[in-house]
Design goal:
24% strand, Rossmann fold, 5 helices, five-stranded parallel sheet, two-stranded antiparallel sheet, alpha/beta, 123 residues
C-alpha cells in the first residue's frame, strides 16, 4: 500500500533530501524532492502527493507562508513542517496556517516514519 502514497520533500539541503528520500523509498513510498517553493508548485500540480515534508527557510521564501497556498489548492495534502528554526511563534503560525505536524531539525528517521504512519492511518 505504501507504494501508492506519494511524498514530496521540499528542502534546500541536499543531504536532508537524500536522507529522507532514500529512507522513505525503502518503505516503498513514491518519493520526490525539490529545493524551492517554485519547484514545489510544479511538483504539487504534476504529482499530487499525499504528504509534503516542507522546510521553512527556502531560497525563494518561507514554507510557513506557503502552507495556506498548498492547503487552498490541495486541501487533502498532509503537511509536515521540518525546520531548524523552532520557536513557539513559528509553531503557532505553522499550525494556524494548516500544517499537520511540526518537526524540528535535527530529527531521526524513526520520528519521520511515526508521523507519516499516523497521517496515513488518518486517511
Amino acid at each position: 500500500m505504501t507504494s501508492l502514497v506519494k511524498i514530496l520533500i521540499v528542502d534546500d539541503e541536499v543531504d536532508i533530501c537524500y536522507f529522507l528520500s532514500r529512507n522513505l523509498a525503502k518503505r516503498d513510498f513514491n518519493v520526490s524532492y525539490v529545493h524551492t517553493l517554485g519547484d514545489a508548485e510544479t511538483q504539487l500540480q504534476q504529482e499530487k502527493p499525499a504528504i509534503v515534508l516542507l522546510d521553512n527557510h527556502l531560497p525563494d521564501g518561507f514554507g510557513i507562508n506557503y502552507v495556506t497556498k498548498i492547503k487552498s489548492k490541495y486541501p487533502d495534502v498532509k503537511i509536515i513542517m521540518i525546520t531548524a528554526h523552532d520557536s513557539p511563534q513559528d509553531r503557532s503560525k505553522a499550525y494556524s496556517n494548516g500544517i499537520d505536524f511540526f518537526l524540528s531539525k535535527p530529527f531521526t528517521i524513526t520520528e519521520v516514519n511515526k508521523i507519516i504512519d499516523v497521517l496515513i492511518e488518518q486517511e
